[in-house]
Amino acid sequence: MSTQFPAGATPTEQPPVCPRHPDRVSYVRCQRCGRPACPECQRPAAVGVQCVDCVREAARATPTVRTALGGRVRGGRPVVTLTIIGLCAASFLLQRALPGWTGQWAFWPAAGEVQPWRFVTAAFLHSPRGFLHILFNMYALWLVGPYLEQTLGRWRYVALYLLAAVGGQVGVTLLAAPTLPGGWLTPVVGASGAVFGLFGAVLVVLRRLGRDARQILVFLALNSVIGFLVPGIAWQAHLGGLLTGLALGAAYAYAPRPRREVLGVTATVGAVVVLVVLAAAKYALV
């Protein structure tokens, strides 16, 4: 029986093995460090391949590119926006499949007092009777969401969306009339409050960066009119979400660069406190 050896190897030499997987023989070497790399540890490079360790080290050494407002520039898809759309779509399917799903997570002021999570969960529900409600909100989210996700960065974008959603329900609570029939018991669902918050924030961001914001103003004006003229639309949620988005957007956009992170956290916590205090004050008066 004869045994073949790769070119340059002799029968007395030990075959090279991958440092990360010593049980795997590899004659392919990293172009950067020269160590063997098995197929699992190989990454394509401009010339040849590099091992995963060298790729990771190079990534750490590469300076982080940020936007004018401190968001980290990332390639690829807007992960957070797509996640929100996916959650809304999944919840919508559950609403149509499970009769009690909407009532379990929808918001109305009387329920929000004892089940405060409804201030958030209602923003991931939509009218199960048709597709227009969710399609309009998800389209509007897609128009501004990716831009804000990139410009502000992921954590501020998530905070903005969730707090605008809460702000929408707080607006409903503050403007509801408990003494009127249904005023304290009317369910509210939809991402409209959160979306209006994003449009309020993008308006401030565009003005801060010196860009044209007229299209956003027209959109807000038209939808504000529709909210008052068309029955069944919770304009109170639109107003609450819009004001929350304007306030947080201004805090994020106009924070001085050296203190941007600290002020961003402070503004986020402050918004939570203000919304909680406003809702608690309303409930105390009822």
UniProtKB/TrEMBL annotation:
Transmembrane segments annotated in the record for this chain: 79-98, 130-148, 160-178, 184-204, 216-233, 239-255, 262-285
Residues annotated as domain Peptidase S54 rhomboid: 115-252
Nucleotide-binding as UniProt keyword: no
Subcellular location as annotated: Membrane
Record Gene3D superfamilies: Rhomboid-like (1.20.1540.10)
GO molecular function: serine-type endopeptidase activity
UniProt membrane topology term: Multi-pass membrane protein
Keyword Transmembrane set for record: yes
UniProt keyword terms in alphabetical order: Hydrolase, Membrane, Transmembrane, Transmembrane helix
One Gene Ontology term, aspect cellular component: membrane
Main localization (coarse): membrane
Protein family membership: Belongs to the peptidase S54 family.
Protein name per UniProt: Peptidase S54 rhomboid domain-containing protein
Gene source species: Cellulomonas aerilata
